[in-house]
Specification:
Elements (H helix, E strand, L loop, with lengths): L1 H19 L14 H5 L9 E6 L6 E6 L4 E5 L21 E2 L2 E2 L8 E6 L2 E11 L4 E6 L4 E7 L8 E5 L5 E5 L18 H4 L2 E8 L5 E9 L3 E7 L7 E7 L8 H4 L5 E8 H9 L4 E13 L4 E14 L7 E7 L2 E6 L5 E6 L4 E6 H9 L3 E5 L2 E4 L1 H4 E6 L5 E6 L4 E6 L4 E6 L5 E6 L4 E5 L12 E6 L15 E7 L6 E8 L6 E5 H5 L25 E5 L2 E9 L2 E3 L2 E6 L3 E8 L8 E5 L7 E3 L4 E6 L5 E6 L12 E7 L8 E3 L10
Parallel strand pairs: 13-18, 36-39, 38-44
Antiparallel strand pairs: 1-2, 1-34, 2-3, 4-5, 6-7, 7-8, 8-9, 9-17, 10-11, 11-12, 12-13, 14-15, 15-16, 16-19, 17-18, 20-21, 21-22, 22-25, 23-24, 26-27, 27-28, 28-29, 30-31, 31-32, 32-33, 35-36, 36-37, 38-45, 39-42, 40-41, 40-43, 43-44
């Protein structure tokens, strides 16, 4: 009967989703009033905010302007990108190395901006890799991925990359509990309860952004969805939404929805640090990759590390506590004061709001209702501030405007709802188009939200844009939340699939020492060519190194002969430009990997394997000047064993003249 009841509930929810995704109630087809004016950014004018949006299954991170919705850049992170040569150049390939080898794709769900004293500081953006568990750090001085660290003991990295208020740690919870890497993983799947474990990873962040896997906490075999750190009074704590407390391993849509409540896990990371210092951590043998980009050499390195410190939450009773939360929670959000923790049970028709002060009191007074696999379970009412009644269907994620208001997305009823954090009263609601997932308020998870705009990221866009075959465009919608009522001012398509996003004032980032070009004198790449006179071609057995320069509008050398079938040819291209926004590209016919995009003052390498004799044009792929089309050259490839000498030139190898 229980399974039939659950299936019935899902049928109702699905039916509601189908109805509401066609047209929310009280909705219009277009924005109204002065909306267009509020979203308009005149030609030559700058947007107020940068919006950093996860690319989901694209594995990339995209950058939009607010309020215009204009796409500025797609930053390659976990997936190869031929537009920029990411994962194709020899220098960037190590960035995509893992303990499983070269992995050229992933699923980037969440972005998180660095903070100082709980406020967005504009230094870095972190992104998660859900499939092959990793965390990336993107440097906002270059808008380039600077570091990627793999997470061992994780079956999936969805609950990530959330940070503490001074960016002391980036924290991640495993999505799929699995046997630990340091245990035997060759076990029957239906031994889940005995052999599967979760791990929470604490990645330390240094002053320059460098990451280090400091320690992990092993937990019962549950699934972690989302998380947020405490701030202010709750600094030193982390809160994770947990589901599948039934510890099911098949048909989770039914078997992981049996209980009325799952949990929010509260983690005392300050106490965990004390245990680490006291020697309570156990070193476990694992393998994970740590990849770093060096701006001086323009190259990446990849190091495989072999151990991690692990704390056991069942043995150390005062680092983890469970708070009951309506089943299948998704969002877990902390208000700007650090007092209120909002849980979002996806199948609930209410929103529970927990009090940090009450939680601390409940722990002190041992107001528990038993334990879950050795972790104390706090009584629901003992930690509860209150419940938002009848807010909507399918609450997912909440952010804050800094004025005492919270905004929650509702997937099933396709709307965003505004409510008062203290009184828990609903203040306003607006429809979205359609089935909204996450939302973003600039600075909305910090101590000081900027609170002017709200962006909803939707899963369905039927009837909003021109159709594009079986799959429609991914969608975002901007709302003005500066007044008492929310107002839709723009919707715009995004790269797919947008999940979470964060935003910050444009001036905070663009005036924070953004790099405009790389000084040639500081280029320490081992194959840098700092002037055209230094250009050359060197043979080392069957390896040929081309020391090449590019400048408007030619390569040096641009004629190369004496290459043979079977050679490994490395084009090390240095862009000699010393001006802002003058990159050069490089491509050659027959290259089976990609092209290069070389920033001013940078050196980048393309590996090319000529497979047959012939003439191979090479050219600049990035429009650079009026004579861009003339920026080209030739490579002559001769058969194996050929006696054609290795020669190179620029401007001198002219056709023979006849009298």
């Amino acid at each position: 009967m229980k399974n039939k009841f659950v299936k019935a509930i899902f049928a109702i929810v699905l039916g509601s989703a189908l109805v509401t995704s066609c047209k929310p109630k009280n909705s219009g087809d277009a924005v109204s009033g002065d909306a267009a004016q509020k979203a308009y950014v005149a030609p030559g004018k700058y947007d107020e905010f940068y919006n950093f949006v996860s690319g989901g299954f694209s594995g990339q991170l995209s950058v939009y302007g607010l309020p215009s919705g204009r796409l500025f850049r797609v930053i390659p992170v976990f997936s190869v990108d031929p537009e920029k040569g990411w994962g194709y150049s020899e220098e960037t390939k190590p960035m995509l190395n893992t303990s499983n080898g070269f992995v050229p794709w992933d699923d980037l769900h969440h972005t998180e901006m660095s903070q100082t004293n709980g406020e967005v500081d504009g230094r870095w953006v972190f992104g998660n890799a859900n499939n092959t568990p990793r965390i990336a750090r993107i440097d906002l001085k270059t808008f380039k991925t600077a570091e990627i660290i793999e997470l061992p003991n994780s079956g999936g990295n969805h609950s990530s990359p959330f940070i503490t208020e001074n960016t002391e740690y980036v924290v991640a919870g495993t999505r799929f509990s699995v046997p630990a890497d340091y245990s035997n993983g060759d076990v029957p799947i239906n031994t889940y309860k005995e052999n599967f474990k979760g791990h929470i990873s604490f990645v330390k962040v240094g002053k320059e952004g460098e990451m280090d896997l400091a320690f992990q906490i092993v937990t019962p075999g549950i699934n972690f969805d989302l998380s947020h750190a405490g701030k202010g009074k709750s600094h030193g704590w982390f809160f994770f939404s947990c589901y599948n407390t039934e510890q099911a391993n098949t048909l989770l849509e039914v078997n992981a929805s049996q209980r009325d409540k799952d949990f929010i896990m509260a983690v005392n990371w300050k106490k965990a640090e004390e245990y680490i210092k006291a020697g309570k951590g156990k070193k476990q043998s694992v393998k994970y990759a740590h990849n770093k980009w060096n701006e001086k050499t323009h190259t990446a390195t990849s190091e495989i590390k072999n151990e991690v410190l692990v704390l056991d939450s069942a043995e150390l009773k005062d680092i983890c506590y469970m708070i009951p939360c309506p089943k299948s929670p998704h969002g877990c959000d902390v208000d700007p004061t650090g007092e209120y923790i909002v849980g979002s049970g996806k199948l609930a028709a209410l929103i529970p709001v927990f009090s940090f002060d009450k939680l601390m009191g409940a722990i002190k007074n041992k107001q528990f209702e038993g334990d879950y696999s050795g972790i104390p379970v706090v009584k629901y009412e003992a930690a509860l501030h209150g419940e938002v009644q009848k807010p909507g269907l399918g609450p997912l994620h909440t952010e804050f405007d800094g004025k005492g208001n919270a905004y929650t997305t509702f997937f099933v009823s396709s709307e965003v709802v505004k409510w008062d954090i203290k009184s828990l009263k609903v203040l306003d609601r607006v429809p979205t188009y359609y089935s909204v997932g996450h939302l973003c308020i600039p600075g909305g998870d910090s101590k000081k939200p900027f609170g002017k705009y709200l962006i909803a990221y939707n899963k369905i866009t039927k009837d909003r844009y021109l159709p594009t075959g079986p799959e429609l465009a991914q969608s975002a919608q901007i709302f003005d939340i500066s007044g008492d009522k929310m107002q839709l001012i723009l919707d715009f398509p995004t790269i797919g699939e947008p999940h979470y996003a964060q935003a910050a004032p444009a001036d905070l980032i663009r005036n924070n020492g953004q790099l405009k070009f790389y000084p040639i004198k500081d280029n320490n790449h081992p194959y840098a060519t700092k002037g055209e006179k230094e250009a050359k071609v060197v043979r080392e057995g069957n390896k040929v190194h081309v020391y090449m320069t590019s400048i408007r509008s030619h390569f040096a050398p641009d004629n190369i002969e004496g290459i043979k079938v079977g050679d490994e040819v490395y084009f090390h291209v240095t862009n000699l430009e010393q001006d802002w926004d003058v990159p050069h590209g490089f491509a050659i016919k027959g290259a089976d990997n990609g092209e290069l995009l070389i920033m001013p003052g940078e050196t980048t390498t393309l590996k090319w394997l000529p497979k047959k004799a012939g003439m191979y044009p090479m050219y600049c792929t990035d429009f650079c000047s009026a004579l861009h089309q003339e920026m080209q050259g030739y490579v002559r490839v001769s058969p194996v064993g050929s006696s054609v000498p290795l020669t190179w030139s620029v401007g001198t190898n002219l056709p023979k003249t006849t009298k």
